[in-house]
Amino acid sequence: MSKYSGLLPKSFRLKNILYEKKDWVATVTINRPEVHNCLNLETLQELGAVFQDASWDDRVAVVVVTGAGNKAFCTGADIKEWNEDFLSKPNDFYKWMGVFIETYERLHNIGKPTIARLNGMVVGGGNELQMSCDLAIAADDVVIRHVGTARGSVPAAGATQWLPLIVGDRRAREMLLLCEEVPAKQALEWGLVNEVVPRKELDQAVKRMATKLINKLPECTRFTKQQLNFWREFSWGMTIGSVRDWLTVHTGAEEIREGIRAFQEKRPIDYVKIREMMVGSRGQNSEIGSQRSEIRDQRSEVRSQRSRVESQKRGRKRG
User: Fold this and answer.
1) How far apart are CA 47 and CA 18, in angstroms?
2) Mean pLDDT over all residues of the chain?
3) What's the CA gap between 122 and 133, in Å, rounded?
4) Is pLDDT at 74 greater than 90 in this prediction?
5) pTM reported for the whole predicted model
């Protein structure tokens, strides 16, 4: 067997992922239902490993990505990990974000058609995960939303780049700035998903779509996908590096700390208080600036007086 072949799923020591390969389909399931299938470092690393395996395995024609249980597909970054690991050490977030980027890029460039099986709520990085797939089928009771600007992050690991391409600029702004839920039916109308079915028909709908994809030419499909990815990859490549830096630098910022702590403490954020703090800070900075300006003016006046005195002394000596 070639070293570039896929491995048996059981050869992976997976803790947070379920991985199955059967009948030309690889199914990758985020298995953290107790935390709504959110993504911590270990989960991202396991996803990256199985995405590479599925890409290399010539007996895999289609990759299905889903979440365990019925409540959540994926809800993005693990806020508990963020709170414990990054608020006090923001530079470690830079490392975590590097793994996040690498994992999502492996999915973008997997070389095979991918289907997001949306079995429950899709939030934040979870929506960026499903948009990283080529196609998406949702159960009819699923909702999709972003919460970054409400909870202390910037949805720029795919959402700001791809939502305008998929649903249009105005709808993208509505989703990202208002942070409101988008029901499955509305997501279908907007083009955010390809199909919505009753929950009991979800697996059959995914199987039906996968069968259609299996019955296509593999190399033609791969290059078609590569060409379709052009604008997504262009916007991603132009922005993701600066996003990684901005999020790292601002992870310790007060409003982000407040957002994450409020989520952990299950309490609302006082948004007006945050704004008043910003106004107060600027007011203090302005006052300090005025005081410094007055001191500079006073020093300048003292220097001028000294200069005049010196000139008068030199005049008397010449006289």
Assistant:
1) 10
2) 92
3) 13
4) yes
5) 0.87
